[in-house]
Each structure stands twice: as structure tokens, then as C-alpha cells.
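Title: Prediction job returns without error message
Component: structure pipeline
Severity: low
Priority: P3
Assignee: unassigned

Description:
Job completed but the reporter wants confirmation the result is attached to the right record. Sequence as submitted:
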Amino acid sequence: MDKKSIIGIVLIGILFFGFTIYSSRQQQKYQEELAAYQAAHPELTQPVVPDSSAVAAAPVVESLGAATPDSTRLAREVAVLGDFLAAAKNAAPQEIVVENDVMKVRFSTGGGIVRSVTLKDYTRYGRQGERNEPIEMFVPESAKFDLSFFIKNGLNNVKVNTSEYTFTADPVVRTDTAQIVCMRLPVAEGAALEYRYVVYDEATPSRDYLVDYTVRLVGMAPYMANQSSIGIAWSNTSYRNERGFKNENMYTTVAYRVPGEGSIDDLSMSEGAKEEKISSSVEWIAFKQQFFSSVLIARDDFLYADVAYDTASPDSGLIKAFSATMAVPYTAQTEQYDFSFYFGPNKYAVLKKIDDAQGQSLLLDRLIPMGWGIIGWVSRWLVIPVFDFLRQYAGSDAADALEQERYYAMRNEYLRTKRLDGSLEELSGADYFFMVYAYGHDFYAKLVNEIGSGAFYEGLKTYYNANYMGIGTKEKLIAAFSEAAGRDLTGWFEANIAPEAAQ
């Protein structure tokens, strides 16, 4: 071993030793900082607890019991909650419906929540296999959005979960560009929690699928107990929209973005349940399906988030149950929180336009899988912009008509000049596409019409079982479908794979 090698080994050893010491110290520092942060933010490890010096014995309304006579129960609720919250706890909820050109939003005064969202331009597979049912973003009965905080009642601190109370609602306000829904939960004289929802109309297409949501603490500071955060719990269960459960489930998950990151994270796919605790701040959380997403955006970020999902049974008509538990910071000076909901398609052109308060992209477009490496880059920066450019300057209808005309011209040329049973080895690009996908699709659609869907699927099964891990041929394919149809289809196949006759 020469001198240079020895020196190199020594240097590597020194660097390795130094890195080990540095890493150990950084880990120790991290643990100390984490312990200090958790001490300052106990909500990270346990529910928000009011200052113990101000607590005698915090009553819990649920402990009043259902068997208590109504008059007694109401009196005890008033004593614990005060007149306003007691009244709100026993009021009957009502529904408010607001819609624009792309969606219908149903609000409920019970908890002051978005109870359901219907997308007008999209449909899902129904029970009979027909795609004729509108997209419902989630099951109304599963919708939950809950703010939790403590208020003072004498020497006691009372936990308020907004989902347990009925808000009062103002008439819907209509402006030139939006419809505004205001609901409030009175807490005391001159103090209320106010929700303000804004649903935009066709004059603001970039916000069609957005519902801006503002939480205002009106005169609440004197009544709020000592606490450093307000908890948020959001959950719902999504319908199954596509025929194939497994494929749709593969693209259904919880996704989120950490502020400042150039990418997004998710829980990945599972056929069971998954959960994750995110100790850093979070900009938005998405309950993402294959083609649609429900997204909650915090304009000033969440402190942390615990997210989870559980997969539904394939025959239930559902896909996944989602949940997220977050917190936002609170001080006596806090007057409002600004959020936004997105309920809409995973459409690049729409998601790309959604910005933060500073006009920076929220990267919601990353909810759409673009492929890895160079494929993703080409899709995002070349293919999609080119199509957007063409549609912008040629017009959507004109572009669609031109593309349709081009498609059918090329398809008809293949029908006129090509045999379907030719070799595919020499084909590439457009040739391969039109031969395999266009020409082939037309052929098999005609075969279904000729022998019926039952015989068609039986023929496919017979052909697959006979040629699995083997070599398939045209003759074997004809034999399989002839057996399923109960008649010889040789003549029909020959006529429909030949030029011109196939038309």
C-alpha cells in the first residue's frame, strides 16, 4: 500500500468519525428541540388541555346522560354551557343549497359544514353498469368538519366541538361573482364563532371548484380559555366512481404538501388501512381519488396533521374512508382563519391555477400522476402546454372538431387499406395506435354486436384459458369465439379484417 492510499484511508476515517460525532450531536439537539416544542405544544401528543390553574373540574356535556329528564338535562346544560350554547345544542339543523355552473354545494347548519358536493359535468358508473349518475364527492352522512377549543365558564373550562352544535344561518348573499353563506355559533352575549363560505360563479372560472372558507372569532377573546391552538378534524367517505375497484383504489389516497417543498407526499396505496403523523407544518391536505379530489387548504398552514384512510369492501359501492386531524395556532389576538376547499376533478389546467396568498403555486397539479423522469417532464412542460395553447387560440370546439376530423380520416384510411391480421412488428407511432387501438376497437365492438356480450366474454375466457403462457393465433381466436357463439365465424372474421369490407 503506497503513501497516498494510506493518507486517503486516514482522511476517510477522520471524516467518518467527525460525521458520526456531528450526527450524534444533531440528533441530541433535535430531541431536545422536539421535547421543548412538545412541551410548548401539548396538543401534538394529547388533546388541548386548558391551564390547570384555572380548572376546577371541567364538566363534560356528554356525561349528562340520555336518561336524564329533559328539563333537568336542559338545566344542567345551561349551567355547563351557558344559555347560547345550550340552545344551539338542541336546535334542529337545516340545509342550504348553493350552486354554480359546475357544482352544487349543500351546507348544513348542523356543525356549519359542507355536507355534500355534486359535480355537474361528470358521471360515475351506476348499479346497472351505466355511466349516468352524477359525481358525488363524498357520502353526506360521513361528512364531518369539527373545530375544537375551550371556553371559560366561571372557574370551569368547557370543551366545545362545533360538530355537536347547530349554527344559525343568514340568507344567502348574491354578488356579481359569488354567493356567500354565513353561519354563526353564538357562545355568549356579543361573542360568536362565524363561518363564511364563498362559492364563485361562471364569471370566475379559475375558482369554479373552490369554496373559500373563513372562520371568524367575533368577540371571543374574553371567553376563550388558555390554549395555544384550535383543533380541526375533517373526515368523509368517498363513493366508488369507476367500474374497476382495484385500479381506482390504487390511485386513491391521502396526499399533502409541506410548505416550501417542490413536491408532494402521500400515504401511497394500500388495500387496507394506513396512517401517518406529520410533525411539520402542512399547507394542504387532499382526499384524493383517481379522477377527483377534495382538498383543504390552510392559507397560513396547519401546525401538524395526522392523516389516515381505510379501504372499503369492493362490493360496498365505496372506495375509502378518509380522516385528518390538524391544529392551527391560537392567541388572544387571533381574529380569523382563512381556508379554502377544492372539490373537483384532477384536471391539470384547473389545479395549476390555484395559488397561495402570495400568488405562488400550491402544486395541486402534482395530484395528477405524470409519470417518472423524462416522461413526467415532457408531459408537464411540453405536451400539456402545447394542447392548452392550441385550445386557447383555436378555441376548444374548433380544436376538438379538428382532432375528431383528423382521427376519423386516419381511421378510415386504415379500414380501407390495411388488414387487421398483419404483422405488428413493423408498426410504430401512429401506425401502431390506429391498428391496435382504433381499428382493433372497431373490430371487437362489431363482434360484440354480432354474437352478443355474453358469448363475447365467454369466447375471451375460452381463448385465454387455452393459450395462457402459450402462443395465440388467429385460427385459435376464431375457434374460441365460434365455440362460444355456437356457429362458425371464419367467414365473418375474414370479411371484417379485410380492407374496405371492414367498413
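Comment from assignee: result matches the submitted record. Residues 3-40 form the longest helix (38 residues).
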